[in-house]
Design brief:
The protein is α/β, with parallel strands linked by helices. The chain is built from 8 helices and 8 strands; from the N terminus they run ααβαβαβααββαβαββ. It has a 6-stranded mixed β-sheet with strand order 3-2-1-4-5-8. β6, α8 and β7 form a beta-alpha-beta unit. α2 crosses α4. The longest helix has 15 residues. The radius of gyration is 16 Å and the shape is globular.
């Protein structure tokens, strides 16, 4: 095993290829024509966890997060993007969650009880995702898969759940752990106090064909 992400990068690509659902979504990402568009969070991390637990690769995945960044922060523009994504991906029957990261700060306080600064890009948003293992997203363009992993891939493949305390609260962290441990009991959960802030940002780039 390595700590620079290279070996785990290949393992991640293999996991994505093995999942019929993820392989299809990734292949169609360019057709969405959304700016700075990535697929990530639970659907990627939980596919890896399912593989490690010997489960069906789609088991326990509640949604497939498509994030993008558009300076047009209107709700109407986001709805157009959401409808277009459903047109391109609807035949897969997957629960899609399509969000413009450029407007998250507009509704975050109402949903989570505290305000956040506006994000500057999709990657900027991913930097704040709640755990190091789930702060992983993939893009696909011109036959190449890009993996955005601000904390690397070590925790993901080691089955370690570690809080990214940049933005979330202990309560949000605890609520995620309850569900995750029911589905993936082999995970090693670290207490909130053992969490981290943003330490590094990495783009990994590999062919996906």
């Amino acid at each position: 095993m390595v700590t620079n992400g290279t070996e785990f990068e290949h393992e991640l690509i293999e996991a994505l290829r093995a999942s019929d659902a993820l392989r299809e979504v990734v292949d169609r990402l360019p057709r969405l024509e959304l700016p700075d568009c990535l697929l990530g969070a639970g659907c990627v991390a939980q596919t890896v966890w399912n593989r490690a637990h010997g489960k069906a690769l789609s088991a326990g995945i509640s949604d497939y997060d498509l994030v993008y960044f558009d300076p047009d922060r209107s709700e109407a523009a986001e709805q157009v993007a959401r409808d277009h994504a459903r047109t391109i991906l609807g035949d897969l029957g997957l629960p899609l969650d399509v969000k413009n990261q450029g407007r998250v700060h507009l509704w975050y306080r109402e949903r989570f009880g505290c305000g956040i600064r506006p994000y500057a890009s999709a990657g900027d948003a991913i930097d704040s995702w709640p755990t190091t293992a789930t702060a992983v997203a993939v893009g696909y363009d011109a036959g190449r898969l890009s993996v955005y992993a601000p904390f690397g891939l070590d925790d993901l493949f080691a089955g370690i759940v570690r809080a990214n305390r940049v933005q979330i609260t202990p309560e949000i962290y605890a609520s995620k752990l309850d569900r995750w441990l029911r589905h993936w009991p082999k995970l090693t959960v670290l207490p909130w106090e053992k969490g981290v802030g943003l330490e590094a940002t990495r783009w990994l780039d590999q062919p996906f064909t």
